[in-house]
């Protein structure tokens, strides 16, 4: 499902482990943005006291973006994990997560099927980040600024407010590429 329970007494240990992994990644590849799907359990994280990976992760100064999934009408998918306690808790934004046409490897890789899930939404955000880096190479090695650009250019979906981050943002890839910020000043300042 993509979501894992982390017991509250183990959360700090889990965060330390995640930080170590990010530092190893930095050593190998340089600073990078980690994009993760929120999960497909339909779990509401608001005030639950239960921590789920990755749906409830701190952003680490813009290093991590957690993505929920929406349907074609920008409604949260019924099985998408969600919840917003404050701007620092995830998911940060939503992206389309339904009816992706994919080649089915079980059918020889030649037939297509429709698939859905927050993994597709996370992939769309990752692809957008890559396109932004193509358009603005100066953002390479600056995951916080890249994250901020994607979030600052997100489209506000009123029905997602308080469910997906504090502002109910949905990815707008084109705005992120051309830098048409509508939400400046909402997010953390980058070091």
Q: Could you characterize the architecture of this molecule?
A:
The chain is α/β, with parallel strands linked by helices and 191 residues long. It has four helices and nine strands; from the N terminus they run βαββββββααββα. The chain has helices at 11-29, 118-135, 143-152, 173-178; strands at 4-6, 34-37, 51-53, 64-70, 93-96, 100-103, 112-115, 155-156, 169-170. The strands form four sheets. A three-stranded parallel β-sheet has the order 2-4-5. It has a two-stranded antiparallel sheet with strand order 1-3. Strands 6-7 form a two-stranded antiparallel ribbon. A hairpin with an 8-residue loop joins strand 6 and strand 7. The chain is globular and about 45 Å long.
Summarize the structure in short.
The chain is α/β, with parallel strands linked by helices.
Strand residue percentage: 15-25%
Round the mean pLDDT to the nearest integer and report it.
77
Judged by helices, strands and strand pairing, the structural class is alpha/beta
* Total beta strands: 9
In angstroms, what separates the terminal alpha carbons?
34 Å
The outline comes out as globular
| Proportion in helices | 25-40%
User: Order of strands across the biggest sheet?
Assistant: 2-4-5
Give a short account of the largest sheet: 3 strands, parallel
Order of helices and strands: EHEEEEEEHHEEH
Q: Evaluate the radius of gyration.
A: 16 Å
- Count of individual helical segments: 4
Low-pLDDT sequence parts: 85-89
């Amino acid at each position: 499902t993509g979501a894992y329970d982390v017991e509250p007494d183990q959360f700090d240990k889990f965060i330390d482990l995640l930080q170590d992994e990010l530092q190893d990644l930095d050593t190998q590849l340089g600073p990078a943005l980690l994009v993760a799907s929120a999960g497909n359990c339909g779990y509401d994280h608001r005030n639950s006291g239960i921590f789920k990976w990755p749906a409830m992760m701190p952003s680490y100064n813009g290093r991590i973006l957690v993505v929920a999934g929406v349907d074609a009408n920008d409604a949260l998918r019924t099985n998408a994990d969600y919840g917003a306690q404050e701007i620092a808790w995830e998911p940060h934004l939503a992206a389309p997560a339904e009816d992706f046409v994919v080649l089915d490897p079980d059918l020889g890789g030649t037939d297509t099927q429709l698939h859905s899930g927050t993994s597709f939404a996370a992939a769309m955000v990752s692809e957008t980040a890559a396109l932004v880096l193509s358009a603005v190479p100066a953002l390479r090695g600056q995951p916080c600024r890249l994250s901020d650009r994607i979030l600052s250019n997100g489209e506000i979906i009123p029905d997602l407010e308080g469910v997906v981050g504090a502002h109910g943002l949905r990815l707008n890839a084109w705005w992120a590429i051309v830098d048409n910020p509508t939400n400046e000043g909402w997010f953390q300042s980058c070091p």
